[in-house]
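Dissemination and training. As part of the outreach component of the grant, students in the summer workshop were shown how a complex can be specified as a set of sequence lines and then modelled as a single object. The example used during the hands-on session is reproduced here so that future cohorts can follow it. Participants entered these lines:
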Amino acid sequence: MTAAAIRLTSRVGVVMTLAAFLGVVAFFWPFLVAPGKFGSNYAPPLIFGVLLVLVLCVVLSEIAEGGIDSKALAMLGVLSAVNAALRPLGAGTAGIETVFFVLVLAGRVYGAGFGFTLGCTSLFASALITGGVGPWMPYQMFGCAFVGMLAGFLPRATGRREVLMLAVYGSVSGYLFGFLLNLSFWPFSLDPNSSIAYLPGLPFTEQWQRYLAFDLATSLGWDTGRAVTNFVCILLAGPAVLTTFRRAARKARFRASVRFAGPRTADSEPR
Amino acid sequence: MTAVDRTTVQASATGPDPSPDVGGRRLPRALHPMAWWVWALALATAVSRTDNPLLLFLVLAVLGYVVTARRTEAPWARGFKYYLYLALTVVVIRVVFRAVFATGITSRDHFLFSLPHIPTPDWYAGIKIGGPVSLEALLSAATDGLRLACMLCCIGAANTLANPKRALRVLPGALYELGVAVTVAISVAPQLVQSVQRVVRARKLRAGKAQGMQALRGIVVPVLEDALERSLRLAAAMDSRGYGRAGRATRRSRHITGALMLLGMCGLCAGAYGLLDATAPAFLGLPAMGLGALLCVAGLHLGGRRVTRTAYRPDPWRLPEWAVAGVGVLSAVLLLANLGYDPAQLNPTFYPLTWPALPLVPTAAILLAGTAGFLAPPPSPAQRADAP
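and obtained this result:
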């Protein structure tokens, strides 16, 4: 295994854990909130959206504080461009989602920190290119960042088992991503009088039933499309792409250790 | 959000076109992107106040006017129509779901039609499918959906009008690396399209017959190799131009930055907990969250010392910027202040069912926001798609 492209210090680990907690709150608040705490259905998504922006800024700043060398940064930029170029290919046609393919494989090869950052930069760049900047972006970025990061934390495996593991992970994360993103706009996207809309103050089971019905009615087909695309793409093109990424990682030698040799020691290698 | 993504990057391959608004005596220049964002977000805030369909259609008209008058020919400036499609989808979904997942009808409603009722099992009793549908229900779903659609279109207008590459410059110094990566991504993406075209052409010349997934692999791998090669060359170029030189951060300021960030995140967590739990003491809610946010912002500010940046040709913030942002904020203030009109006219009731009135002050406020269309200077003609 080559070294991870971006080093994660323990401080970043703590910040990421806190960020994960905040992310859970920001996505799942409709089920967690005590009745009567929020007045309008529009306010909490905005509050949590701003919160997620801030959290992402803090995490990314902390990751960068540990040092991103120029090779990792250039690779980040180029792979984000690949993702941003891949994204419009799929979106809009039967839920085919092509972003996760590169994200999962790159997260696997270049490590969790790289996966996290790549998830953010891909979606950010794609939104800037296609003019899709909006309040939904922090939620998407957060989701993708964690998909990329967790791909870096998958257990050790080689050969076919690794590809199969990544493919399964890709499809599961496709479902989970759709589920979470739906949750982020469910509270305000439906008329409150509809029987599958978010109704503040309902007990957990009923709220959950309403959400599942909403998820089933709106996007289960899309999510299935996304999961199948991920699975098939990773299974078929995964081995070749993994090899390509690993070759590039060997060539780049991320975070190569630097040794300064004194000028007078005769036996040291001249650089 | 999917309809938004459909503007492809291939759009950038086309050449320069004359700007729709040439002429006039003012010097054409691009408005500061933040001015457009402030204007659009303020208008979205104003929209969130009202349910009146007449006002909402007026907002759409104003947005359409400003966008057509002041957008450039850049690829991101062609996305507004997709936002309009998305807005239509939002309204349709809302109406359809209101009709299908109905909640019954009262004696005061006008009965419209009835859908077949599908019984749900007892353990899934919360959901009702089918049943009678009233005119009031559909109208309220449509107007409420129209409000959301208008807010979406405000954001779409900002995306269309503001230059995203310029907007990247307002990223704080602590996110410098992120900004660099995104800038690289934006400038490399059009080259990737060319790279794909090159690989596809080469495959055709070699009479590659593979279809479907086999073809995918044959294209993906060479393109990726090309991209990764490019990234290594780029890294070497960045190194030779002094990327990664140290800023003004000392060891002590780094420690303070870390402490601020950690404390801030703890504050945010406590605030989130306090916001959701009814039994939590009051100071744990918004105050804790605000304090955490302040600490985080301070940390980000201090962390910005890590890099030193200079701006090449910084965007000016002059009178037109003040004017555009000002009329946006003013219209939001007018709609939020409830002065000079009956607040009930903003949210007309459906009982009894009447034609909504058009209150004077909100109408004037929205038209005032529309003056941004000529307060902003005309966009520079024939701006190249890949210009910075």
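The longest strand of chain B covers residues 111-118. Students were then asked to discuss how this feature might be tested experimentally.
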